[in-house]
Amino acid sequence: MTCQSGRSYTIKVGDTLYIIAQNELGDGNRWREILKSSGTSFTEEEASNLQLGQEVCIPQTNTTPPTPPTPSPNEGKLFVGYFQSWSEKWGSEPNQLQLANLPSYVNMVIVSFMKPDATYGGNLSLAGTGLDFSADGSVVKGAIALLKQRNPNTKVLVAVGGATYHNFAGLNVGAIASVVKDFGFDGVDIDYEPFNTAQCSSTNGKISCTSDTEYRRIVNEIRQALPRPYLVTLAAWSIGAYGEGEWTNSKPQGALTGLLLNLLQSSDANKIDLLNVMSYDASPEYKPQEALVAYQNYFKGKIVMGVEVPPEGWGGHIYTIPEVRNLVNAVREKNAAGMMLWSIQKQPNGTPSDNNPSAQMIAKEICQQLSLGNCDLPLS
């Protein structure tokens, strides 16, 4: 068949309507304008099950885009979910991956983790990047595009660093930027965790850390490689805003108390779009509500507060559902940007309960408290 209007396009490996619209019309959100060869529109199910060799019809590029839906009053709050690439199942098609099927209430997805010193040879090869998907790169790219197609308000970032990848001295911003652009990511989350190498100390009430210069360099180089509208976010250390002023003696104290203070009190803070505060792994004496106020004192941009599916990696604390609810209430009262979850795929030991909640239980609580809608939809 030939197109009744517009021009013909043949589906190739890794294609989604979102990718085609991004490449051919300049805006992935215009995917609904692409028609079947019969001249009819694609249903959601049909758009998720394109066939190799299938003909679709692309409108002329001067077609007026459809009027976007009116945003709901609650769309301003963020629910950030970290997505473990190593936990993703294998699939030969984008719609088979969990990444493509995440619910719309998780409106910022951060795919973990890319090496700071990554190498990238192009052609959507994941070798050398640190990302540990079992699926081919083309399938992962398609899953990202399909998720955005289904949930147009969702942003997808790639996290660089984490607890395993520490070689920020060898930061390869060229490779990172190329992966972001080739795979359709919306930006980078800098997860700088120098817990084995950095030391912070106080002199005359002022915190300085051995990592200050490197941290600012990382932010500057990544922002230069990915100017706005790409997003640059930080995974902020739990006690990273403690150590000065009224938070001089805030607990717990540690080697990285005040890790972010030098950065956040410099002009380089303006290069950051969002702080994802890792308000966990800090022992039961840690008060996340206090940490939120401290971070808001130093950073005037968007801040989300994080919770971890138990057990936490260090310190012995467990976020119960009532504690999650209390933190969300603090976020709302302090007009913070939202909440973060580490991680979407992590599961607790033993039977899930309000005192030992699963990722799904925490996600539903956050969704309901932030009034994000469709809160019964599963994470997987």
Describe the protein.
Its EC number is 3.2.1.14. One of its GO terms (biological process) is carbohydrate metabolic process. GO terms for molecular function: chitin binding; endochitinase activity. Belongs to the glycosyl hydrolase 18 family. The protein has 380 residues and is an alpha/beta fold. It has two domains: 7-58, Membrane-bound Lytic Murein Transglycosylase D, Chain A; 78-369, Glycosidases (TIM Barrel). The chain has nine helices and 13 strands. It has an eight-stranded parallel barrel with strand order 4-5-6-7-10-11-12-13, surrounded by four helices. Strand 12, helix 8 (321-333) and strand 13 (338-342) form a beta-alpha-beta unit. Helix 8 runs parallel beside helix 9. The two termini are 38 Å apart. The model is unreliable at 63-74 (pLDDT under 50).
